[in-house]
Specification:
This protein is of the alpha+beta class. It has helices spanning 2-25, 31-61, 318-321; strands at 103-105, 114-116, 120-121, 124-128, 133-138, 143-155, 168-179, 187-194, 211-217, 222-227, 236-242, 253-263, 268-276, 287-294, 333-338, 341-352. It has a domain at 150-341: Jelly Rolls (Sandwich), CATH 2.60.120. It is built from 3 helices and 16 strands. Strand 12 (253-263) and strand 13 form a beta hairpin. Keywords: Membrane, Transmembrane, Transmembrane helix.
Length: 357
């Protein structure tokens, strides 16, 4: 509307200018007066024409209404591995493999069905079952079913030279099938930072038997065990027991992760246990069940010693235990055990990871 009014005013002035010009070109007796009127009209026209410009400039400089702003709150979840990798079974790795770290995974899915009785796996010389009394049936599609009173499955360098790193992430799935006898430790136990008869006699090399265990009892208890003296009744101590649900279910795959890492400049050991109840769907949904830090005073103090003069509370770190190790290779093996029954296993993977510090 403002623009249309301004245009109308300008047109009226233009018409007046035309009439004055016509008059000035005629034989009018008052040319000077007409010229003065013409100058006045031209000035007025100029002023009127400039008004819209002034108005426009004024509007452009006037602050506009405040624009509502939307505040977005972002919740960030911090994870150990922002882009987690997966092992060859498609299971999520909680911690990355160290730069020079080794990884071993079971070869039970290589298409070769076989049965092992206290022997080395003919398809994998890193895997052997010679330390117990059981039967191990591998279907070739990824599952090993172990039955017997003393099931023992060891993973180690067949030359008995290279030890496992102190810092490990161990993963496997276990299925409880049946028991022939129930004892207070019935269930699966996974031990690391141990030798336990790998290259010697476990009844003689007693300090090589020391190790850290991650335990899942059939009663549903998850805990850690430190073996300080294989030959003594008080040579085993359990800590940090948690029971996240009921009993270990029958005929159900349960994911198990056991993490061991040094910390505080290799003076302490942090242990962690995780569970997956999805059967490995999309890499698994890993829930931390329990954790514990062995600080050298709180895990084994007052328990049996592997030999006189050796502190049973020592953290199982090379710098603390190598002197008392009979073989000087106290961390040759990782082993899995259960007793008096049948359990199935799959997706067994061991990776070397970085320490906490």
């Amino acid at each position: 509307m403002v623009v249309r009014d301004d245009d109308a005013g300008t047109n009226n002035i233009g018409n007046r200018i035309k009439r004055l010009l016509s008059s000035s070109s005629s034989s009018s007796p008052q040319p000077a007066k007409i010229r003065n009127r013409l100058i006045f009209v031209l000035v007025a026209a100029t002023l009127v024409a400039s008004i819209p410009v002034i108005l426009v400039v004024g509007i452009s400089q006037k602050p506009g209404p405040a624009v509502p702003t939307t505040t977005t709150t972002t919740t960030t979840t911090t994870t150990r591995n922002s882009s987690p990798s997966k092992d060859r079974f498609g299971i999520t790795e909680l911690y990355p493999t160290s730069a020079s770290g080794m990884e071993w995974s079971s070869k039970w899915d290589n298409g070769a069905a076989r049965t092992i009785v206290n022997d080395v796996d003919p398809e994998d010389d890193w895997f052997e079952t010679k330390h117990g009394d059981g039967t191990y049936t591998i279907d070739g599609a990824g599952t090993l079913t172990a039955s017997g009173d003393y099931v023992r499955m060891y993973v180690h360098d067949p030359a008995n030279e290279r030890e496992w790193s102190e810092n490990l992430e161990i993963t496997l799935y276990v299925k409880r099938i049946s028991e022939t006898q129930i004892v207070d430790y019935s269930g699966m136990q996974v031990f690391a930072r141990t030798n336990h008869g790998t290259n010697g006699n476990e009844e003689v090399n007693l300090c090589d038997d020391r190790g850290y265990g991650g335990l899942v009892n059939i009663n549903g208890q998850w805990s850690f065990e430190k073996e300080t003296a294989h030959h003594l009744d008080n040579g085993y101590v359990d800590v940090a027991s948690q029971r996240p649900s009921g009993e270990l279910p029958l005929n159900t795959w349960v994911g198990f992760k056991y993490v061991l890492r040094n910390m505080d400049d290799n003076t302490k050991v942090k242990l962690e246990l995780y569970r997956d109840m999805t059967g490995g769907l999309n890499g698994g949904s890993w829930q931390k069940i329990t954790e514990f830090i062995d600080n050298g005073n709180n895990f084994g103090a007052g328990y049996g010693a592997c030999r006189p003069g050796v502190d049973p509370a020592l953290p199982l770190i090379h710098s603390f235990i190598d002197d008392s190790s009979e073989s000087k290779k106290p961390m040759l093996s990782v082993y899995v055990r259960h007793e008096y029954g049948t359990m199935a296993y799959s997706g067994f993977d061991i990776r070397e990871i970085d320490p906490l510090s």
